[in-house]
Structure formats: C-alpha cells, structure tokens
Write a structure and sequence with these properties.
Layout lengths: L19 H9 L3 E2 L1 E6 L5 E6 L2 E6 L2 E8 L5 H6 L2 E6 L5 H8 L12 E2 L5 E2 L5 E13 L2 E13 L7 E3 L2 E3 L7
Antiparallel strand pairs: 1-11, 2-3, 2-6, 4-5, 5-10, 6-9, 7-8, 9-10, 11-12
Length: 177
C-alpha cells in the first residue's frame, strides 16, 4: 500500500458539514424495498419494526444486515435475541409497513403469524422470508448495524415487492406494452 510501512492504511477523519435536510432529501430519492424485521423476547413476546435499511452482505457465508436506530424501543430485544427474520413485504402490504413503523401499544393485535427458527414471527403474504441467526452487531453512528447469518429462505417469485421512495410506497412500472 502506498504510504504504508507494512501496517494498515489509516484514513484521516475530518469534520464534515452536511446539511441534514439535504442529506435526508438525497437519501430519500433512493428507492428501496421494504421489510419488517421480527424477533421474540425471552418470554416469547413478538417484536417487529419496519426497515428499508436492509441489504445483502455476503453469499458465502450467507449474511444480511439491517440498521436500527439506537433509540428504538425494540433494540434491546434485537441485541439479545439469537434469531430474527426479515419479512420482505409484498406491494399490497403498505398498511402493514405503516403499522410496524409507528409506535403502537400492540402492533401484533389481530395479526396472525407462524414461528420460524428461534420462534421468530414470519408474517403471511410476504414476497420472501429470511430466517437468520444473529452474527454480529456493528457501530453505525446513531444506528446499530445488525448482521445475520441466513439459516432458511422462503420465496414467492410471483409476488411483487413493495417499494419506498421519498415517503411514498409504490411498485415497479410494467415493462409490458
């Protein structure tokens, strides 16, 4: 490495003055899929939160990540839980996304689900489910980055994924016609 005497290269850190509103606008212009990450506490009570900060990391080993705000009510449960699930939402599940993005007394009231590995909730009607074992937790500023090793996958390729951009839900435009 240039400038390195056999050791690791250091990147100089400097203060960056970025306008928060400009950053939010720029990041909001990037369309993403929408998922609900679910787990259970020690007593088996389900928890979940809507995320658009979900990403694949590695195919070998199969790793994915999601980011969670350090102030999130469910963060302590995700940090303690051995397993979690990524429920990738279908285009008709925008209301479910809103439900899990909003602080509610009981997000689970009247909602049916099945238990995956480690008892984690798998929500019906999704495009895909990734059942994961917690692999690592990394610092990400005002968020934590939770890495999971995928232990099981279920997909429904015929279902269309829900998209999110600039505060709006949507879908891909058809290439037909």
């Amino acid at each position: 490495m240039a400038g390195s005497a056999g050791g690791s290269a250091r990147i100089a850190e400097k203060e960056v003055d970025v306008d928060r509103d400009d950053l939010r606008e720029a990041l909001g212009s990037f369309a993403t899929g929408v998922a609900i990450v679910t787990s259970v506490d020690d007593g088996g009570t389900p928890v979940g939160l809507t995320v658009n900060s979900f990403s694949s990391v590695s195919m070998n080993p199969p790793l994915v990540l999601f980011c969670v705000d350090r102030r999130a009510f469910s963060l302590p449960i995700f940090l303690e839980a051995s397993h979690f699930a990524i429920n990738i939402l279908e285009v008709e599940q925008a209301e479910l996304s809103r439900r899990f993005a909003t602080p509610l007394a009981d997000k689970w009231a009247g909602l049916r689900w099945v238990a995956g590995a480690g008892g984690v909730p798998l929500l019906p009607g999704c495009v895909a489910w990734l059942e994961c074992r917690r692999h690592d937790v990394l610092n990400g500023g005002d968020h934590l980055i939770i890495l999971g090793e995928v232990t099981a996958v279920t997909t429904h390729p015929g279902r269309e994924a829900l998209l999110y951009k600039r505060g709006l839900y949507g879908r891909f435009a058809s290439d037909d016609g």
